[in-house]
User: Fold this.
Amino acid sequence: MEKASPKKVKRWSQEVNESSNALDLEPGLFTWNDPQKIAVSLKWSADRSDRRKGTPFGSAMSMLNFYINRAGKNLPSQRRRILEKAKEELRELYGKPRF
Assistant:
């Protein structure tokens, strides 16, 4: 008897990341090592999206936070630092104060 081929597991968070209805993200965006490049790409996507429900800044920041939060403990500290720096860069691009 043959074994059934293993099913490809697709998590809901992966689905959101790949096919968000709010933003069209560049492939591999969250794996880049340049925080400014990540922020510029998120801004570009958010500014051009006509499907987002909130402000461009809010949509871009939400997508970045979503990725960081979903990765949780599995996100290496160096990657987390890069993404946290991308949040700062995004705030600067939109002229938003830290607090």
Q: What stands out?
A: The longest helix spans residues 77-94. The chain has a mean pLDDT of 85. Residues 28-94 form one domain.
